[in-house]
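Researcher: Please predict.
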Amino acid sequence: MRPERLVLVCGTATEVGKTWVAARLLRELRGQGRSVSARKPAQSFDIDSEGGRLGGATDAEVLGAASGEHPGAVCHSFRSYTRAMAPPMAAEALGLPGFSVADLVAEMDWPDQRVDVGIVEMAGGVRSPQASDGDTTHLVAALRPDTIVLVADAGLGTINAVRLSMEALGTVSAGDAGGRIVVVLDRFDGHHDLHRRNRQWLVERDHFDVVTLPGEEQRLAELVTSG
């Protein structure tokens, strides 16, 4: 059953901290007494020569630990690919069948008992392929989330990356396929001059809703659960 509120977490690029942000949000919401569930439509990662995962836990394992769910419920085993590429590219490289946006949507099985907040984390950046026929913007159009959380690095290049991603997301969210967009500046250091200036520019010049992490988990939870 679709969650009461659906939140889609995406990023300006890979390695900006989407999974960490999603996990922090899940824990904050649970701490407030809200029921949650997490989904990762498809994931990809490298394995080392001994068969272990590089960097430790997979995204599904991190999200599952935060939501209280089994990793296999967060991301189906057949959508977990052992190549560090965009998921549809990883499937192709491994000689596995391709899949579509419609497949990912159909496979997204939520708990039978409706939860307060469901979080869906994308792979890579906003325009990174999520399926053979679409990227994050196509998932936004199909899922119609109530809130989109755009995770960005706080340092050099942030404003350009956020603006380009917001422009791409705006093509679908403006059509009422997605609701409010919240920008999260991850790894934010309040003592770092560039970090502070990036946040100020995005708020005062671009008029974006901006949250900085770590530190503003409660405010992020309030923004994604408000009407």
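Model: Residues 5-225 form a domain with the Rossmann fold fold (CATH 3.40.50.300).
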